[in-house]
Task: structure prediction
Amino acid sequence: MTSPIPRAVMSLDTLDTPGATTAPVALPSPDLLDRARAGWEHFLVTARETSVE
Result:
């Protein structure tokens, strides 16, 4: 499946395309990182609780 938005990003679809280069990828926002960390910590706590039972 290809994206309808043209991108100059190296991928399996563009390996044979002349001029295809890598492009910088936007970094996740601090809020997203905080939420991901909170979710991961929640997962670890529940995994420990279920392994003890």
In short: Residues 27-53 form one domain. Residues 30-52 form the longest helix (23 residues).
